[in-house]
Amino acid sequence: MPEYLLLLLLVLPFAGSLAIASLLRTAARTLPSWLAGGVALLATILTASYYPSVTNGKVVRYEIAWLPELGLNFTLRLDGFAWLFTMLVTAIGFLVVLYARYYMSAEDPIPRFFSFLLAFMGAMLGVVLSGNIILLSIFWELTSIFSFLLIGYWYHNANARDGARMALTITGIGGFCLLVGFLLIGHIVGSYDLDRVLASGDIIREHPLYLPALVLILIGALTKSAQFPFHFWLPNAMAAPTPVSAYLHSATMVKAGVFLLVRLWPALSGTFEWFWLVGFAGISTLLLGAYFAIFQRDLKGLLAYSTISHLGLITTLLSLGSPLAAVAAIFHMVNHATFKASLFMAAGIIDHETGTRDMQKLSGLFRYLPYTASLAMVACAAMAGVPLLNGFLSKEMFFAEAVETHADSILDQALPYIATLAGAFSVAYSIRFIHTVFFGPPPTDLPKPHPHEPPRWMRFPVESLVFACLIVGIVPGLSIGPFLHTAVLSVLGPETPYYSLAVWHGFNLPLVMSIVAMLGGAALYFALHNYLARCEDGPPIFRHLRGQRIFERILVTVSWKWARWLETNIGTRRLQPQLRIVAVVAFLAAFLPLHLSGFDAKLPPVRGVDPAFVMLWIIGMLSALAAAFLAKYHRFAALLLIGGSGIVTCVTFAWLSAPDLAITQLLVEIVTTVLLLLGLRWLPKRLDKIDESATFSARLRRLRDFAIAVACGVGMSILAYTVMTLPVPDTIANFFLERAYSEGGGRNVVNVILVDFRGFDTMGEIAVLGIVALTVFALLRRFRPATESIGLPEQQRIQNAYDDAQPERNKGDTVRDYLFVPSVVMQWLFPVVITFAIYLFMRGHDLPGGGFAAGITMAIAFLLQYLAGGTRWAEDRLRILPLRWIAFGLLIAAATGAGSWFFGYPFLTSHSQYLTLPLIGKVPTASALLFDLGVFSLVVGATVLILIAIAHQSIRTYRVKAAPKTEDA
Amino acid sequence: MEFILSLGIGVMTGSGVWLILRPRTYQVIIGLSLLSYAVNLFIFGVGGLKVNAPAVLQDGVDISAYTDPVPQALVLTAIVIGFATTALFLVVLLAARGLTGTDHVDGREQP
């Protein structure tokens, strides 16, 4: 089998999920299930055909470079153990899809269900197949997310929402810890590659960071596998549809935790810490889970706690650190998946047929569902560990390992007794399941009074799984034997011990323990029988101590009480204090380091002062100060004044040999002014009010702000002066200056940097520009202006009143008359400005100009037409489609960048040469020119879109609610 | 030259900071514009000031004669992006004025 098919195996479920998601809005019922079933079946077949490639410890690897600089590769890796698990995920996945096809009712949105289920399958396959631990943790998170979506599938149900949220919180925290743990492991080993990690067990175990890494990884694994003390999310997740429980909470997702423990077993296990941490969690879960399971009233609750207990058994086995125990753990994973999935499905059938899962209501169903009952009984017997069924074999192996001494300690010595006790509990709850549900008097008050056998194909998945339990239980060596051996060999390698899967090992201690557990469990059940028929839900004593309650208490404390405390004590929703903090922090960030490093503000003497430059900046500074003074009440004046500062800035750029900046600044200054002017139309006048500064506190506040402003200004001056008078060191500038012509093919270095050397940055910037323009556009679509400004502005009203008063004049004549000459000039300028834009664009690579400047010029050309004739006039004659300009710009920029791939160069590599055109002569044509065309087009589109969107507000009709009030104002 | 420019940068910064700490949205937008002038000039000035330097590459001119193109490239995009953010802020400002009926930055008058 070629290794690239591994990628197909991984992509297949996700692709299927997307395909089904496209049916979300349709009422399709059969198509999604066929698709999902087809995908699952195909994946199963694909996996099965990989078997010859993984036997005898062989590994299939598929690798794509992902972030090789960080040592991260997209590595897929299939060995015997992963194969076994992949088989479980895909095959049980197929059966679950088949089952769900009949289980889901007509009212449920079927495509959503199957879409999530397939996506979950994909995530699970990702966890199993990852050959890189970072990749593994990404898929690990995906399983958490899709399990959240699946548990919350019936989101109209509050229990489902709570259960989903709890599962996500717990497994999400675990996933985060896992990632940190993996980063530590990667730090220790020096690689995230799974093979390297597995081969470096000794280095990891001796490293001082071993314990933190171990604890973090264990938190990840134990939360996922619902191990004590994180077990409580699993019973709450039972609010999910039963196919989800059968798949996620028995066969796959909760197994991911123990899967990981097995996977990392060669790297992490065998230490004292491992034994204690894993062993403690495993043994307490094993015992508590089984004990709790006895006292559940809900069928699925019983199965959930039983799952917890069985996962505890697997964890316990893994804690022992002996190879034989690892074999038993792997074996039990498979066995548990088969019998538990079938039991969940049987519980689903019972729920489906009777309408309840309450064991105090269910009774005597054998007469109605004889066939399902028989299947459930066999599966239950496997769960209890009855001989000739698969559960018996792995349980015997567990008992045998429990008797062995591993790490000499109280925990180890107590293990045989604990194991027998847990065995007895599991027998008790298995008998309870069968006895209460299927035997006894006929049920009396079922929600659906006439249960009957489910459809043929709904039973089929249960049949196949139970059949597997039987086959494995009776002839283990011929059925599961070789596959198990392959899996074990891939985990343990040369350490693989001798083990026997025979049903009969002679009359030995484990068998005695089994018999004790059977008899004890049966006795326990019949002793508790009457109590269980009437008792409240949950085990005695413990039912008051609920993990869920504790979890919620913690969550409320952290996310509500603490958060609120923080918000009220150190937070504010007011903008002014926030900005004040920003300003002060910015000041200190510059001041403190300089002060601490002994910066001496001995400034070099002032030299070379040009009087014209002084005059220029006196104007600039006065404009800035006046704008600051007037911005509150005299907005228009303030706008003109900052325009003055802007022009001074622009002249400064020109003066100091930066023509590109000067051009761009000038053009942007024009559009900014127009923009703010358009905005002022919608900002009602601020009338002079009584001066608030009368109060002392307000005056103090102003004084403080003034001090901050002065400090920032003075600091900035000193800083700027110091920096500018320092001798300029050798900077990266030389690199660009030397190579701009030889490698970028342009003489205008600034432009070459923008479109060539740092083209990727520019690409990001134009994308931002496009996004901002679209945001402005979107915000204005539902724009509701201030009520005071809905009516016509004062000037228009005066003009209209004048026009109305004169009988020979029409409305709008005045404005037309007095702008007549300028508007004709502006209309005539249209082609001129466009030509100028093209000129700026073409010369950009060698002379000042370029895409940005040309784009804004072009936008101004359009803008002038709007100014000259008004919005309606302009749009009758000119259809500008700014969105297309934006899209075209982005596309061409990206395409130019991607074009260099075809020639085998990295993204955005440019090529330049001179092209001789008739009449015009030699024209430099670099591929960067195309990129610049993208910049140009985007800048045009974005600028025009923003301005037009605002200008358009004037011709919209608003529902005027408060219009009369405007007249008074 | 440097002295005047840095003085100018300082005044613009001071005016800008003063304005962004004011309670009216329009004051903030004007303040941000002034701050962006100051910051652009500062970044530009870091590359060193040169009068009458050749603007584009010419044959036979030593590299040290040119101005530093890197800050210029940075500032050039900053100018354009500055326009876009001003536009965005303006629209938010107008929408807030329409929705809240006040031009206070917090959407309601502070007592």
Please identify the oligomeric state: heterodimer
How many DSSP helices of chain A? 39
Overall, the morphology of chain B is elongated
Helix content of chain B: 55-70%
Gyration radius from CA atoms of chain A, angstroms: 38 Å
The stretches of 5 or more residues of chain A where confidence is low (pLDDT under 50) are 961-969
Q: Kindly report the average pLDDT value of chain A.
A: 87
Sum up the overall morphology of chain A in one term: elongated
**How far is the N terminus from the C terminus of chain B?**
47 Å
Written overview of the protein:
Chain A is mainly alpha-helical. In chain A, the strands form two sheets. A two-stranded antiparallel sheet of chain A has the order 1-2. Chain A has a two-stranded antiparallel ribbon with strand order 3-4. The longest helix of chain A has 32 residues, at 158-189. The relative contact order of chain A is 0.05. With 111 residues, chain B is an all-alpha fold. Helix content of chain B is 66%, strand content 0%. In chain B, helix 2 (25-46) packs antiparallel against helix 3. Chain B is elongated and about 65 Å long. The model of chain B has no long low-confidence stretch (mean pLDDT 88). The chains are: A mainly alpha (969), B mainly alpha (111). Chains A and B meet through helix 25, helix 26, helix 27, helix 28 and helix 29 of A and helix 1, helix 2 and helix 3 of B. Chain B: It comes from Mycoplana rhizolycopersici. Chain B: InterPro entries: CPA3_antiporter_subunitC, NUOK/Mnh_C1-like.
Question: What does this entry show, briefly?
Answer:
Chain A has 969 residues and is mostly helical. In chain A, 71% of the residues lie in helices and 3% in strands. In chain A, strand 3 (912-917) and strand 4 (921-926) form a beta hairpin.
Which SSEs are present, and which pair or pack?
The complex is a heterodimer of chains A (969) and B (111).
Chain A: H1 5-21, H2 30-49, H3 51-54, E1 60-67, E2 72-78, H4 80-103, H5 110-129, H6 133-151, H7 158-189, H8 194-199, H9 201-206, H10 210-224, H11 233-236, H12 242-251, H13 253-263, H14 265-268, H15 272-294, H16 299-319, H17 323-354, H18 370-384, H19 390-403, H20 410-438, H21 456-474, H22 481-492, H23 509-534, H24 547-570, H25 575-596, H26 611-630, H27 635-655, H28 659-680, H29 696-725, H30 733-744, H31 749-757, H32 759-781, H33 794-805, H34 813-818, H35 820-843, H36 851-877, H37 882-902, E3 912-917, E4 921-926, H38 927-952, H39 963-968
Antiparallel strand pairs in A: 1-2, 3-4
Chain B: H1 2-20, H2 25-46, H3 69-100
Helix pairs in contact in B: 1-2, 2-3
